[in-house]
DNA sequence: TATATATTTGAAAAACCTTTGATCATGTAA
DNA sequence: TTACATGATCAAAGGTTTTTCAAATATATA
């Protein structure tokens, strides 16, 4: 496999250096830009596999860059990881709503960044085939875009966590997903809570989709995690 | 699950005692060292699940220890939490640059340390990417991703131990695996139980896969262990 | 700010899995 | 063939994980 190409955009030069050095050590081909304008101009000319983008930039900020990228057909699916100096949850949601695939708050460990890049790249690679319409299982239809779950036409309201949980399970249909995996994917790396939290949300979900012996959607794999067939 | 093994390295003895006591209360198996040299020597001999490492150490300091650990292939992914006396942000980034997964500045609450340890361990455990396709032998098909064993289409439910056992045997097809090897691999280093435990699980497995004279999957090699052809 | 809603935590019950010890069976060496 | 060592079998005890419920926090909404 050839090296993945990464573009890093940040206005702090030493951060750029730090990330660049570490990513290169890990076999990535790294390019850097310091402003949103430069970033957009660069992406018009060259293609990259993944973009690491600081939220706070002089001139056009990260969110705006994100939006513009998502509005270009050829860049719609470019994986983007957003860097944010503030740790607020609001930032996260905001970033993700504007089309980022993941986010990290500074300061962060470069190892973590690499782990997340791998995860995002893996997802974007495997999702190519899965973008065929809404996710469905049995009499359940999950419309990811509208955040709506239908059970035989009846609309079921899901909370964000429930939605993400169901979506993740459906996107990985058949695979057993560990609680740790789900926590990382849905709750984020910086989550320090208990793994039992997952159980409770699974329970809510099961209740909402009216799971019973006849319609056993979410399977518990003891000692391993959960899966949907 | 067996206890997670933690190595704590700090030159202040009372800090070591404090952390050790609290972690043991919380079900960890704790080892301690007072210098970087001792730490590295120990890691050459024994394996641990996570390392809690003070930045300031007599002789080789924490950063150097970190670097050396990261340069060893078998320790590249060992989760490391760095302890630092100074609270400066620069120190943090510095520490992380050298490969720590998280950091804490002293003084800290042991509760928080445990929370962070959990998070770091979770992250390292969530990178589940066994790209192994289904393993097959005769009319048995083991799908590791979905934790499913099929016998001519019929799904057989396996417990974790049975699944691991079958998986390990299949991954080492043809090789005889000793009970001790299996115990290390599946039950973990910290397991002190009897080797006969393996027999019992093999027995369950045999029962579940309906082994008989015509389909002798798991072979007993007297005096050596088990194997699958 | 109050109210509603969502999320997390804690603790007990239930379900299930693992280990142990006793006993039996079988293979191996003398 | 016998004695010994190793492996198989079983069921009860013991342990762990998961579920469930309820209460406490946190967050969003009006």
How many DSSP helices of chain A?
Answer: 8
From the alpha carbons, calculate the radius of gyration of chain A and give it in angstroms.
Answer: 19 Å
Query: What is the average per-residue confidence, as pLDDT of chain A, rounded to a whole number?
Result: 82
Q: Give the strand line-up of the largest sheet of chain A.
A: 2-1-3-4-5
The proportion of strand residues of chain A reads 15-25%
* Cα distance spanning the termini of chain A: 32 Å
Low-confidence stretches of chain A: 87-95, 128-132
**H and E order of chain A:** EHEHEHEHEHEEEEHHHEE
* Dominant shape of chain A: elongated
**How does the helix and strand content of chain A classify structurally?**
alpha/beta
Number of strands of chain A: 11
How would you characterize the largest beta sheet of chain A?
A: 5 strands, parallel
List the quaternary state of the chains. homodimer
Largest interface, counted with CB-CB under 8 A?
A: A-B, 30 and 26 residues
């Amino acid at each position: 496999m050839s090296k993945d190409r990464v573009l890093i955009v940040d206005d702090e030069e030493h951060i750029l250096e730090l990330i660049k050095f570490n990513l290169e050590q890990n076999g990535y081909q790294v390019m850097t830009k310091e402003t949103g304008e430069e970033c957009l101009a660069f992406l018009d000319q060259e293609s990259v596999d993944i973009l690491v983008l600081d939220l706070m930039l002089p001139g056009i900020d990260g969110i705006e860059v994100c939006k513009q990228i998502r509005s270009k057909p050829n860049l719609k699916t470019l994986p983007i990881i957003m860097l944010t100096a503030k740790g607020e949850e609001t930032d996260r949601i905001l970033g993700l709503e504007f089309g980022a695939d993941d986010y990290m708050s500074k300061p962060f460990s470069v190892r973590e960044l690499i782990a997340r890049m791998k995860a995002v790249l893996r997802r974007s690679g495997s999702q190519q085939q899965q973008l065929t319409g809404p996710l469905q299982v049995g009499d359940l239809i999950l419309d990811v875009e509208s955040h709506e779950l239908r059970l035989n036409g009846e609309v079921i309201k899901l909370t964000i966590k429930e939605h993400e949980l169901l979506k993740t399970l459906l996107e990985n249909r058949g695979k057993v997903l560990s609680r740790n995996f789900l926590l990382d994917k849905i709750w984020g790396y910086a989550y320090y809570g208990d793994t039992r939290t997952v159980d409770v949300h699974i329970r809510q979900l099961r209740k909402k989709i009216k799971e019973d012996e006849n319609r056993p959607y979410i399977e518990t794999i003891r000692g391993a995690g959960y899966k949907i067939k």
